[in-house]
Every structure is written in C-alpha cells, then in structure tokens.
Amino acid sequence: MYLHAPLPELCKAGVVSNHGADFKLTVDDVPVPKPGPGQLLIKLNVTGLCYSDIHYMLEDLPLPRMGDHGVRSPGHEGAGIVVAVGSDVVGWKVGDRAGVAPTWDTCTYQEYIVSPARYTSRIPDGVDDFSAGPIMCSGSTMSRAASGPFQFNRDTIR
Ligand SMILES: [Zn+2]
C-alpha cells in the first residue's frame, strides 16, 4: 500500500440505526478503512443521494439488508481523490481524481472509503466533483443504456 500523507485514524460517517420506517441517520466517527488488494482509498469531496439509499434505510424492498454486507452507512456514488493505493492495483496513483459507482459494500456517506479499483471511474479535467459525484449511479446507468448493446431506438422513446 502506498500512502501520500499520514491519514487520520477516524473520519465522519452517516451511520444508520433503527432501520425501517423510523430509520435514524447520525454522524459518527468511524475508523478510516485500509485498502486491500485491488482497492483504492478515496477521500470523498462529494456524495450523492440516490433513492436506493432511502430504500436501504427503510428496508421497504425485498433486497438484502445493508447490514448483511457489513455496511452501516448508505450511499453508493461520489467523487474525490485517491489517498492510498492497495497492492495489485495497476494504473492508479495517489492524487488521481476518482468517481465511485454502485457496489454492494461501498458506503459513500463517509469521508474516506475503499473502492475496488476495477469499478472506480476517472473524473476528467473540466468536470468538477459536484457534477461528477451525483451522476455515478444515475448517469452511468443512462449512459450504459444509451451506448451499450441495448441502445434505445429514438423512435421508441416518448
Ligand atoms: Zn443509485
């Protein structure tokens, strides 16, 4: 693992308690995670609020619970800067700008997060974090739908 500067031991996170209709989200101090093999440690500047996060807190859909994956904080999109690189990561370095897309065990209501390098997106120059962060879920979904093998036919979109 390569570190650019000393990292704090703790960081702020939005932590859910009392899941369900009366869920509660509080700001707590949590340990700064350490990147494992193939992972990046990212200091987030921006996170998004997707309605899926509300569903995870409400537990109103027949989906696995956040806690089933060891997740205490919701959130699955954001933008920031790489502050540490785990072993076996190729092509990323400390200081790179990074966008986080949805994965089961990434919680972006936290200052420092680990993200699998292979699922982390580069943020190009000229795109600020406040524009990039919130579109990592919704924007990437629409981009993939419009450019992939399931390309929409303009005539069928109303
Ligand atoms: Zn989403």
Automatic annotation (TrEMBL):
Entry cofactors: Zn(2+)
Keyword match Lyase: no
Alphabetical list of Pfam families matching this protein: ADH_N
GO cellular component, one term: cytoplasm
Annotated Alcohol dehydrogenase-like N-terminal domain residues: 36-124
Molecular-function GO term, any one: zinc ion binding
Protein name: Alcohol dehydrogenase-like N-terminal domain-containing protein
InterPro entries: ADH-like_N, ADH_Zn_CS, GroES-like_sf
Record-annotated membrane-spanning stretches: none
